[in-house]
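Incident log, structure service

09:12 report received: a user says their structure output differs between two submissions of the same chain.
09:20 pulled the input from the user's history:
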Amino acid sequence: MEQQQANLGRIDVVAEGHCLVIKINRPEKRNGFTPEMGLALAQAYTRLEHDPDLRVGVLCAEGEHFTGGLDLPRWAEAMREGRSMWPVELVDPFDLREPRRSKPVVAAVQGICYTLGIELMLAADMVVAADNCRFSQLEVKRGIMATGGATVRMAERAGTGTALYHLLVAGEFGSQEALRVGYVQEIVPAEKLFARARELAELIAANAPLAVVASRRNVLLSVEHGRDQAIAAFRNVQSALAASEDASEGIASFKERRPAVFKGQ
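09:34 re-ran on a clean worker, output below:
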C-alpha cells in the first residue's frame, strides 16, 4: 500500500504561521502529476482560501524538479471524456474558473518545469525561479493543447508573438528567458529557492490582508475586464478599506513608529 501511494504521489501541506506551504511530492517520477495529486492540490488551494488564519500560499516541489507535467497515461481517459481535473466545488489551482482564490500565492520552481508546471506558476501571483530551470510548454508534441491557462497568460505576459513561439515551437528555454518575457519575477541559486519564496510570502503576510486581497483583485480586474472597470472600482474599494480596523492600525503604527499588527478586519 505504501509503495502504491508513493507511485501515485502526494501533495504535502503545512501551515507555517500565516503561510500555507503546498509541496508537490513525487520526485521519483519528476513530480509527474497523477489525478490523485490533482485532487489534493485543489483541496490545498481550497484550504488556503477558506482558513481565516492563512494569508498567502507557497507552491513548491520536492526534489530536483518542479514537475514534468501530467502523467498522461493516468489522465488520458478523463481528457478524452472532457472531465474536470478536480471537483467543481474546489478552488481551481489554475485560477481560471469559479470558485477562484482571493489570496496570493508565491511559486518556487526548479529544474524541469514543463506544461502543467508552467501553467501553475503563471496562475500564481509571483514566481521565484532557480537558475537551473528548464521550461517547455510542449502539449502540441503530444497531440493536445495547453488548457491550464498558458495560451492566455503567456500572451498577457509576453505578447502574442512570444506566446505562440513558446506554444507552437514547443522548445525548451531557461530561467533567463522566462525572466525576460515576464513569466518569472526573480532568479536565485537553486539552494536559496525555497528560502526566498518563503521570505516573499512573509513580506506579503505582514501587510494588511484586506488590502492585499483588494489590490490583487483590482489588478486581475484590469487584466481580465479592462482598465476602466478597475478604475471604476477604486472609490468603493478604498472607502471600505479605509473603514477597516486594519486601516486604523496602519495609521496608528505610522504615528507610533512601530510595525503594524494586522488582523484582517
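09:41 both user submissions now match this output. Likely a transient worker issue. Closing.
09:42 reviewer note: The first strand starts at residue 10 and ends at 16. The chain has a mean pLDDT of 95.
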